[in-house]
Amino acid sequence: MEELAGRVAVVTGGAGGIGRAMGERFATEGMSVVLADVEQPALDETVDELRARTLEVTGVLTDVSSYESVTELRDRTLETYGGVHLLCNNAGIGAGAEGPQWEHELNDWRWAFGVNVFGVIHGINAFVPHMVASGQEGHVVNTSSGNGGVSPLRGTPEYAVTKAAVVTLTECLYAQLQDAGSVVGASVLFPGPHMLRTGLFTSWRNRPADLAKERPRSTPYPTIEDIEAQMEAAGITPEYTDPSEVADQVVAGVRNAAFWIMAPSATTDAQIRARADSMLHRSNPSYLRGVPG
Ligand SMILES: NC(=O)c1ccc[n+]([C@@H]2O[C@H](COP(=O)([O-])OP(=O)(O)OC[C@H]3O[C@@H](n4cnc5c(N)ncnc54)[C@H](O)[C@@H]3O)[C@@H](O)[C@H]2O)c1
Predict the structure, then answer these.
(1) Ligand 1 neighbourhood includes 262 CB (under 6 angstroms)
(2) Phi and psi (nearest 5°) for 75?
(3) pLDDT of 254-291, one tens digit each?
C-alpha cells in the first residue's frame, strides 16, 4: 500500500513505546490514526500530545485480549473515520515468569496468550473481513519479536512461544489473502535490530486481577538495567534501537509490501541460520540464547 495520506490506521498498544511511534509516524504521513490501548492515562496523554501537533489521532480504550473490546474498537474506528486500511496488531506483554518453565504458573501462560496471540487473532477477526470486503488496498502488520520468532529466548518461554505463534499465523494470513486475490497485504514485524527501551520491561503494570500471580516472585521483576547486566555478563554489549526507527521500517515495509519487516543485522541472520541448520542437519539445538531476560 504505497499511498498512506488520507487513509486510516489502527494501532493497538498505541499509548507508548513502538505503538506510539508508529501512530505518530502514520499521522505525520497524513493518515487518520486510532490508537488503542488498555492504559487510559498513557493513552490520553499520547493523544493530547499528538493532537497538540495538529495530527489526526483518536484514542480508544481497548483490551485486545477481549474480542468484544476489539469489535468495539472496530466500530468506533468505522464511525469516526469511515474505514480502515492499516491494522497494526502491536499490543504485547512479557509475562514476567521466573525460573524453570515447569514451575511457571498457568496464569503467566494465559495472560501471554490472551494479549500476544489472541490479541492478534481478535484484531484479524474483527477488522480483516471489513478490510477485504471494502475492496480497498489495505495492510495488516503483526508485531512479533526476535526473542520468539527468530531465536527463542529460553528464560521467557511465554514470550518466545507467543511471538513464534504471531509469525506462523501471519504467514497463514498472508497466504490466504493472496489466495483470495485480496489487495490487503500482511507483514510480520520484528522490532530491532536491537532491543528498545520501552514499557515492555514493566508489562506487569497492566496485568489483570483475574490473571494475577498465584504466588509472589522470589526475585523482583528484572529491570532493563538488570537485563543489561545479564547481557554484559554473557559478553553481549547492550545496544538500543529507537522506536522511531521501527516506525520508519514499518512505513517502508507497508509501502513495499514486504512480508518480513526486519532490520538488516548480522546477529539476527546468524541466529536464523543456526536454527535452520540445526533443523536441516537434525542436530540438537545448541543455538538457544543464554540471556534469560
Ligand atoms: N521493546 C522491545 O525491545 C521489543 C522487541 C521486540 C518486540 N517488541 C514488541 O513490540 C510490541 C510493543 O511493545 P513495546 O516494546 O512498545 O512495549 P510497551 O509496553 O511500551 O508498549 C506496549 C503497549 O501495549 C499496551 N497493552 C498491554 N496490554 C494490553 C492489552 N491487553 N490491550 C491493549 N493494549 C495493551 C500497553 O499499555 C503499552 O502501551 C509488543 O508486542 C512487544 O512484544 C518489543
Answers:
(1) no
(2) -65, -40
(3) 999 999 999 999 999 999 999 999 999 999 998 887 66
In tens, the pLDDT along 23-68 reads 999 999 999 999 999 999 999 999 999 999 999 999 999 999 999 9
Q: How distant, in Å, are the alpha carbons of 46, 92, 191, 198 from that of 202?
A: 18, 11, 18, 9
Domain spans, the chain: 8-280
172, exposed or middle or buried, with CB in 10 Å at 0-12, 13-18, 19+? exposed
**Among 37, 120, 246, which is best to mutate for testing ligand 1, by the most ligand atoms less than 8 A from CB?**
37
* Closest of 108, 287, 121 to residue 208, by C-alpha: 108
β-strand partners of 57: 33
Q: From the options 2.30.38.10, 3.40.50.2300, 3.40.50.720, 3.40.50.920, give the CATH code of 8-280.
A: 3.40.50.720
Active site residues: 159
